Amino acid sequence: MVSGSPSESEIRDWCVKYLARTLDLREPTIDPDAKFARLGLDSANSVYLIVELEEWLGTELTTELIFEYPSIAELARYLARHAAGERGAG
Amino acid sequence: MRQVNAEQVERLRSPKPAIAIEVASLASILRYRAAERPNDPGYIFLPDRGGGRHQITYAELYRRARALALRLAVHGKRGDRAVLLFPPGLDFVVAFFGCLLAGIIAVPMMIPRRGSRRDASTAIFADCSPRFAITYRDLVAVARPDLGNRFSDVELEWLFVDAPGAEPNPNVALPALERADIAFLQYTSGSTSTPKGVIVSHDNLLQNLEMIRIAFGNTPQSTHVTWVPHYHDMGLILCILQSLYIGALCVLMAPVSFLQRPLSWLRAIHEYRAEVAGGPNFAFDLCVKRHRPEEMQGVDLSCWKLAYNGAEPVRAATIERFASTFAPYGFSANSAHPAYGMAEATLLISSGKRGAGPTLLTVDRDALQNGKAVASTPNHHVHRIVGCGRPLIGERLAIVDPDDRRRLRAGQIGEIWVAGPHVAQGYWCNAEATAAVFGAIIDGEPAEIWLRTGDLGFLDENNELYITGRIKDLIIIRGVNHYPQDIENTVQDCHTALRQHCGAAFSMLDQNDEEQLVIVQEVERTYRHRFAIGEIIGSIREAVNREHEITPREIVLIRTGTLPQTTSGKIQRSLTKQMFLAGSLAVLQ
Fold first, then answer.
1. CB contact A34 to B (< 8 Å)
2. I need a surface site. Which of B22, B70, B192, B433 has the fewest CB within 10 A?
């Protein structure tokens, strides 16, 4: 679990690194604005991304977030504003 | 439908049953349970995030299923098909038994994904021409209004399990079923071009449920906990139907709950003192990967007697890692229970003995590739394979040379052929595929017809079955079957730069021995100098993900005219795979 609330760009970088590793892609080829589907993220891998984010951020997330915020950039923006705040509020 | 004479069929259909079952269908067993133990819960569904639980007693299940059956009987006739579109939960169970009671052929299927264009649902609808689509009101009214539009050009009637509808007509009677009647169609893959609906009769179903009961040693105390989807043959037959057959409680979880919190499956096994729970190989790996001691406090898995592992290749390393990780919580390594089966045999084909633990064999990898199972010597590459148990009581299993159809001896690798009363009736409306798969005859043994599994394996001296490979072109990812032709079609339709009929999809094992999808595709000559490879690869990823729910591991674009094909233009997938692994494809950079 990360200490302190990560910023939007830290979350974005984390997602790029994570997806590069799991999807076996080179980091520069991952466009944070590309839709997750474009990156080839299937439903099982979407769930795993959410689970890894939960562990890193130390908060509970729902798998629906992937549909509501369907790119790394959108998801990172949402998480930076909301998820970290929820944790702070306990 | 079969290309064999009636006498052969008769001989195949009338072996000595393991135990005489005096009922015509599983529906009779539900009626019996409802009368005998009306207030016992038959099924419990655990919604995501511990939001309580939903349960249904046998009496309630029978009452609701019968109410639906009466509505079906008013509007339809025996033998009509009904597709069942349900999220995980108890309504599916009601609808399935409603169909059985009414003599309507149930067709369980996955709810089409939002935004998918050409997923399997369209092909399944076209293949089985359903009279009904059964679901619950809020799914089409609120959650997925797109479903009504999606199937607006199909003539069918929507029925809602949660709508009281008109009072059942007292003059409508439910049919007296016969064991030869068709119970349901099991569509075996996410196939989009050539879906194959396995025809399972009431007799097939009862015969295999009895085989499973004996092989697994199940009793009314054998509580099940399952997260495997209900449209998957393992989830449906091994859990939902076997539990009712033996009179045991079945606890259901949503597949996504398991993927997100695999340990919640183990906690449910603990909480309900379940004996029987399992899944495809990846499920056990996922539990190990997500193991967090703080989430397992107080969990006691000593009740878990049978952790079946099937639907995708069983890995020795997976079994060992799982057993050692969860031994501190009382899990016994002897509970690991590899099994083998397929929808064409209703479900189960081979199984170990309860509590005996898996049989591991170390073989010479090179000899294995040459079709022989040879015990390894220290100097050779070794490969550990897991026994999938023995053939079932009431079943015949043969290892046959797939080319000249001679029966092979113990230790020789060949195609696995199966015969018995659990072998299904064929594929719905597909006489050609039925004859090819269900009508095989061993050289010199004309008296019996066999099911060709398309899987390779051998029997050892103790009659233990080992699966060593596959001759059919099939890709299995997370327990789901995918036909390469479907993926190739999706690829070729997603970008104009890609040549039609000039691509190959196949799987390879990654460093963890998990199957991964590889796509090799030719590019049109005219596009060669003016396209962006990255953009095309992105399109392929997106399309394959959208239509098939798979993340391709490798996408390789190759020069026009360099994909290995036979002179008649047939794609040579295994040769393409060899060239891919050898690095000898004409890859466009």
1. yes
2. B22
* SS3 (DSSP) at B249: coil
pLDDT digits (tens, 9 = 90+) for B348-405: 999 999 999 999 998 887 777 666 666 666 666 778 899 999 999 999 999 999 999 9
Per-residue pLDDT tens over the stretch B88-124: 999 999 999 999 999 999 999 988 877 676 667 888 8
- Confirm if B489 and B193 have CB atoms less than 8 A apart: yes
* More confident site: B581 or B379: B581
The complex's ipTM works out to 0.79
Q: What is the pTM of this model?
A: 0.87
* pLDDT tens digit sequence for A29-46: 899 999 998 888 888 889
Work out the end-to-end distance of chain A between its first and last CA atoms, rounded to an integer number of angstroms: 15
* Nearest-Cα residue of chain A relative to residue B516: A23
Q: Where are the domains of chain B?
A: 18-301, 483-582
CATH topology of domain B18-301: Rossmann fold (3.40.50)
Report the alpha-carbon distance of residue B456 to residue B467 in Å, rounded: 6
What beta strand segments (E) does B374-437 contain?
Answer: 382-386, 390-391, 396-400, 414-419
Residues of A in contact with B114 (CB under 8 A): 67
Q: Is domain B483-582 classified as CATH 3.30.450.40?
A: no
CA distance A47 to B202: 37
Contact check, Cβ <8 Å, A47/B260: yes
pLDDT of B68: 94
Q: What is the largest CA-CA distance in chain A?
A: 37
Tokens at B105, concatenated: 């052929």
Query: CB distance A38–B552 less than 8 Å?
Result: no
Contact B259 A29 (CB under 8 A): no
Q: Flag if A40 and B259 touch (Cβ within 8 Å).
A: no
